[in-house]
Amino acid sequence: MLNQTKNNALSEFLRKTPQSKEFSTEAKQVMPGGVTANIKAFDPYPIIMDQGAGAYLYDIDGNKYIDYLLSYGALMLGHGPPAVVNAIQSQVEDDGTFLFGTPHRLETEMGKKIRQHYPSMERIRYTNSGTEATLLAIRMAHAYTGKHKIAKFEGHYHGGYDQVLLSVNPSVDNAGPVDEPTSVIESKGVDPYHQEHTIVLPFNNLDATAEILRKKKDDIAAVILEPIQSGFIPADHFFMEGLRTITEELGILLIFDEVKTGFRIGLGGAQAVYGISPDLTTLGKVIGGGFPVGIVGGKQDVLMTSAPNSNSDVFDSSQSKTSQAKDVLFHSGTYNGHPTILAAGLATINVLEQEIDHVLTTTRQLKKGISELFAKHGISMQTIGLGSIFNVVITDKEKIWNHRELQQANFSMRKQLDFLLLNEGIYTKPLNRYSLATVHGDKEVQDTLAAYDKALSKLT
Ligand SMILES: Cc1ncc(COP(=O)(O)O)c(C=O)c1O
């Protein structure tokens, strides 16, 4: 029965998207796999979008979709929001340039706005992506503690570089003991050195985590985690409090990677929900208003490892140097603190300050409606997540705590459902989570639920 549904869903998908197929074939002649980020690829081919407006995407075949991917959560005001368009135009027109190459007022203005919502971020530095932000946070932790290893949790993603491309999505067969996971390389080309230097911890398992940290405390500079794994599996409060206590006790820095959860779980991110103050925080996605940005912030004395001091510039080869470049943590970037992007980000946060409650309420309504429809069609599932992000997990389990438990969910049924929903005009990349925006309202929720009802009828 499921196979028949799968075939029907796929043939309908192929029928509706011939130009996407053709364009994908052409794109493969230009880019490996036809994509420029592997996450954007899916079988038989990804849908090629052509236009965006508010809550909607339009593909090159003219199909219209309600967008719940929202560029992996980045677009919290939807597509082309007037507040952001105006902010970008004003910045360029008022300032006469979009890049000063010097300090400018928006850097400080945005920094103060961030600190208002994230008091733990006493000082901040800008980067150009979430990946760069976690990379810098980890370097700061090494610099501050003088230790050479880090610890991350199984199933957590922090960007695409060697130090953290380990045990992001390991198959359970390779992942080692539940209480002491193996560090599994997730990409060709990752230097095995990092397998040794990145210790993998079991999420939501405080006793096992504490035991590993105690054993290796002299080597571990920091524990980095997504406080809400993949943006939707929340840490248990008790676990989070325990982790804060143990890291403090062992002299290990605690880094909250809030690239997904920042401003999405609530204005103050996961740290406000848990009432925990990490040593370092990384932000990205929402704070760029759709443009590339990242921020590292945290305790003043940790951030100060990056403060320039006299004559420590790595590029300064004059004889008058009084200190060495290696005395200061190197952090630089041509585009760091880009004025146009910060204007877009500030405009986004200003709107969210007024409208976040609407997004949270709409998300709750959608989650409730979807759960009711699954119950009506007799399929066990959960809508897991906090704030404006959730995922639809088809499972009999009462609670999902980590990567290994998630692996037991019914992904094949979920994938079929996703194709049926794509055919009904509901967009998220198959198997991805849902993120909501200010532009989702009653109409979008009702239309989505009607599409779900239809899709679930076909599935069952
Ligand atoms: C938690 C987390 N950290 C880091 C990153 C990397 O951010 P970027 O894609 O902006 O480099 C992501 C991206 O999805 C993320 O979700």
UniProtKB/TrEMBL annotation:
Keywords: Aminotransferase, Pyridoxal phosphate, Transferase
InterPro entries referenced in this protein's UniProt entry, alphabetically: Aminotrans_3 (IPR005814), Aminotrans_3_PPA_site (IPR049704), PyrdxlP-dep_Trfase (IPR015424), PyrdxlP-dep_Trfase_major (IPR015421), PyrdxlP-dep_Trfase_small (IPR015422)
Needed co-factor(s): pyridoxal 5'-phosphate
Highest taxon in the source lineage: Bacteria
Gene3D superfamilies associated with the record: Aspartate Aminotransferase, domain 1 (3.90.1150.10), Type I PLP-dependent aspartate aminotransferase-like (Major domain) (3.40.640.10)
An example molecular function term from Gene Ontology annotations: transaminase activity
Family that this chain belongs to: Belongs to the class-III pyridoxal-phosphate-dependent aminotransferase family.
UniProt name for this protein: Aspartate aminotransferase family protein
Species in which this protein is naturally found: Halobacillus shinanisalinarum
Lineage, broadest ranks: Bacteria, Bacillati, Bacillota, Bacilli, Bacillales
